[in-house]
Amino acid sequence: MIAVELRKLVTRPRTWVSIAMLTALPLIVAAFLRVTGIGPRPGQGPAFLSQVLHNGALFPAAALALILPVFLPVAVSVVAGDSIAGEANFGTLRYLLARPVSRTRLLVAKVTASAAFVFLAVLIVAAVGFAAGAWLFGIKPLPSISGQSIGAQDATWRTAVTVLYVGFSMLGVGTVAIFFSTLTDSPLAAALGALAVLVTSQVLDLIDAASAVQPYLPTHYWLAFVDLFRNPVLWHDVVRGFGIQAVYLLVALGAAWANFTTKDITS
Amino acid sequence: MTATAIISTRGLTKAFGPRLAVADLNLTVNEGDVFGFLGPNGSGKTTTLRMLLGLVYATSGTIELFGHRIPRDASLVLGKVGALIEGPGFYPHRSGPANLDLVDSAGSNSGRDRKSRIDEALERVGLADSGRLKVGAYSTGMRQRLALAAALLRRPRLLVLDEPTAPLDPHGARSMRDLIAELASDGVTVLLSSHLLSEVETICNRAAIVDRGRLVAQDEVARLLAPTGQLWITTPDLDKAETLLRRAEGPNITERTTERLALDPGNMSPDAVNELLVCSGVRVLELTIERATLEDIFLRLTADGRDVDDRG
Fold first, then answer.
1. 3-state secondary structure of B233
2. Cβ contact, residue pair A4, B79, below 8 Å
3. What is the pLDDT of residues B128-178, one digit of tens each?
4. Is the pLDDT of residue B8 over 80?
5. Interfacial A residues in 18-47 facing B (CB < 8 Å)
6. DSSP string covering B264-277, please?
7. Whole-number Å distance between alpha carbons of B174 and A24
């Protein structure tokens, strides 16, 4: 069943169109930076962008920081929100389950396919970001945010952990969207549900009145991967970020499973 | 009767909130049956079919398919069942064969003979030359036939068909009925829900009628359609016939139209009535023994045309 879902994912044009759009945004930004040479003032604007002008090696991380707040979670919500509700919407869910495919197996396959989409998207954005950064800005030893320089090998693993971290954060979003996808027969409603959670989290993260709950918000530590480029690495927030996402992921998966395996399929 | 029960439900009940969709349903479909499942809209037919396939969970009661409990043992027996429930469900951006390939890969079937089974199923429903056309561009009839092909993919022993001819034009409906009859003669058991009572009369050997979730009749079609006891006589000599019959012992004329008489023959047999008329010079064009139609029975047993809800 997992193989079937992966096949559906890679043979569906939507998958590649959305990844192409995700990749295009950082490329457009890179083109503007290259042509004008005007970066954001240090400490302002998206993470790493001011340093990218001097060193393309930071561009993969900068590209991920560009798509992370809005574009990537929207894409993940749409794809993961479609997982069960999309089948219901096409009328294929009842036929799949009557094959029979057990509901647990179908859910596992859907989660796997959503995870595959997340990592495919993040990896491609990072890889294209690396190529574009090298071509447009050149690769030099990284000056870390804290001043000392980071060697090429060092930069590679930091970028790899960044890819993993961003991917894992998006899995949290994806599983919330999958949970909503088991609740409704409308893929749009499921995506909207997941986005509602994220927007609420991002708004609460900005207001002081909500400071008590901020450390537990799903989006709170999303940009903590910036700390990976300090010397020495500041692990605290990254580790907390992984932990918080793991909790959201497990709760959302458990809720999705409990709901999907007991509900009447009337679509 | 030594027939093996393929489907057997006992006290099957389903409540959606406070509303009973199916109430205490005892349904038995035997091997080889072409079983008609009738009822007005909202009478619980589709809900029952969904429960048989493990899609909707019963509130109480039991279901056995091939002697196995549903939904507990669904994975053991549903592989022997082909289903068409509430219309086709396909990925519109893929071709018909690609859809069948995906749906077949989803079960735990071996992929070895998949290609040949897909070709065979497409051939059988007359879609062999559909090629790479995407399902989104199919006509309603083609989609319905593709759905039947999907149901036939694994050479099922039981077909559950929810109003299979409803969206089809007369030609399509005829070939669908022919195909169902052909499958039945190959030994496939068929459970067929339908609104088309003449269709059920034609192709089903047994039938059940449900109303508001309750079973109101379940019998062989031939027995449901037993003679009503009334005779119809068509003749140009109506007056003469009426006089003769009124004079005879037993017959009782119940109705007269411009060319026909209806009568309850009482203790006279239909052939004796015919002899009496013909020997007295009445030109009998036609003498028929009236049988109830399923429509009569249906309308008598089910409450008149109110829609409880869209769900069938």
1. strand
2. no
3. 888 789 999 999 999 999 999 999 998 999 999 999 998 888 998 999 999
4. yes
5. none
6. E-TTS-HHHHHHHH
7. 54
Closest Cβ opposite residue A100 in set B75, B86, B93: B75
Tens digits of residue pLDDT in A113-152: 999 999 999 999 999 999 998 898 887 766 666 666 677 6
| CA–CA separation, A248 and B259 (whole Å) | 81
Cα angle, residue B38 at apex, residues B26 and B18 outer, rounded to 5°: 60
3-state secondary structure of B241: helix
Q: Can you tell me the distance from the alpha carbon of B160 to that of B117, in angstroms, rounded to the nearest whole number? A: 19
**What local confidence, expressed as pLDDT, does residue B307 receive?**
45
Instruction: Report whether B122 contacts B194 (CB < 8 A).
Output: no
* CB pair distance less than 8 Å for A94 and B103: no
| CB-closest option in A7, A91, A264 to B87 | A91
**CA-CA distance, A11 to B192, in Å (whole number)?**
36
Of A89, A2, A11, A183, the C-alpha closest to B89 is A89
B309 close to A (CB below 8 A): no
Q: What is the reported pTM?
A: 0.87
Average pLDDT over residues B172-188: 92
Q: Are A187 and A82 in contact (CB under 8 A)?
A: yes
Task: Let me know the angle formed at the C-alpha of A199 by A195 and A202, rounded to the nearest 5 degrees.
Answer: 140
Beta-bridge partner residues of A176: none
Task: Beginning with the edge strand found earlier in the chain, give each strand of the sheet holding B252-256 in spatial order.
Answer: B252-256, B260-264, B227-234, B286-291
Residues of B in contact with A4 (CB under 8 A): 102, 105-106
At A85, is the secondary structure helix, strand, or coil? helix
Helix B96-106 crosses helix B114-124 at what angle (to 10 degrees)?
130
Residue in chain B lying closest to A92 (CA): B89
pLDDT at B311 over 60: no
Interface A–B counts its CB contacts (< 8 A) at 73
**Under DSSP, is residue B289 helix (H, G, I), strand (E, B) or coil?**
strand
The closest of B67, B32, B35, B33 to B49, measured between CA atoms, is: B35
Q: Are B224 and B197 in contact (CB under 8 A)?
A: no
Partner-chain contact A91 B89, CB within 8 Å: yes
- In terms of Cα–Cα distance, which of A185, A175, A183 is closest to A252? A175
Interstrand relation of B81-84 and B158-162 (parallel, antiparallel or unpaired): parallel
Of A13, A90, A96, the CB nearest to B106: A96
Please state, rounded to an integer, the average pLDDT across all residues of chain B: 89
Helix ranges, chain A (H): 2-10, 13-36, 49-52, 59-67, 71-90, 93-97, 103-137, 152-183, 187-204, 235-262
pLDDT at position B312: 39
